């Protein structure tokens, strides 16, 4: 998933499972500081007992709540990066970006656990209904992944791709791999 981002991205988590189910691996192609759109996180906010979650606080409303702009939300930290740096975080962690200019280049990989129980498989179905090519209405021509990822996969990588591919194709048959 490669993207250009501009401007601000408000506080949000990508999940709410209350445990480590998925993580995001992000790397940037530009120098990013607290003033130019670096990733900000609220450490510990992936935990259901963290004050943001326990008190149902919307960090984007911190100006009204505390008189503090969202970019300076209490306990948040700015993760300044240089090209090639990698940031990995739990999908449940609240994160944002403020001060981005006209171009903030980043690549992300969303990773989930391999599911073996019915509750985890149900969670994976819910996850892929949003966080996948089909969920974003992107037709890759190869289903969940782009053709190069699938076509160059050896047996070991294919094993890791299979579960998400199968569920994705079940959820989005219109985007399933075409021969």
Structural description of this entry:
By secondary structure, the protein is an alpha+beta fold. It folds into two domains: 2-111, q2cbj1_9rhob like domain (Jelly Rolls, Sandwich); 114-175, no CATH class. It is 23% helix and 26% strand. It contains five helices and six strands. The chain is globular and about 55 Å long.
Q: Concise description?
A:
By secondary structure, the chain is α+β, with helices and mostly antiparallel strands. The protein has helices spanning 51-54, 62-66, 118-128, 147-151, 155-171; strands spanning 2-12, 22-28, 39-41, 77-79, 86-90, 95-112.
Could you list some keywords that capture this structure?
single chain, alpha+beta, 6 strands, Jelly Rolls, 179 residues
Q: Count the DSSP helices.
A: 5
Radius of gyration: 18 Å
Q: Give a count of the beta strands, DSSP E runs of length 2 or more.
A: 6
The percent range for strand residues is 25-35%
Largest beta-sheet details: 6 strands, antiparallel
Please state the overall shape, judged from the principal axes of the Cα atoms: globular
Oligomer: single chain
| CATH fold description of the largest domain | Jelly Rolls
Which CATH architecture of the largest domain would you pick? Sandwich
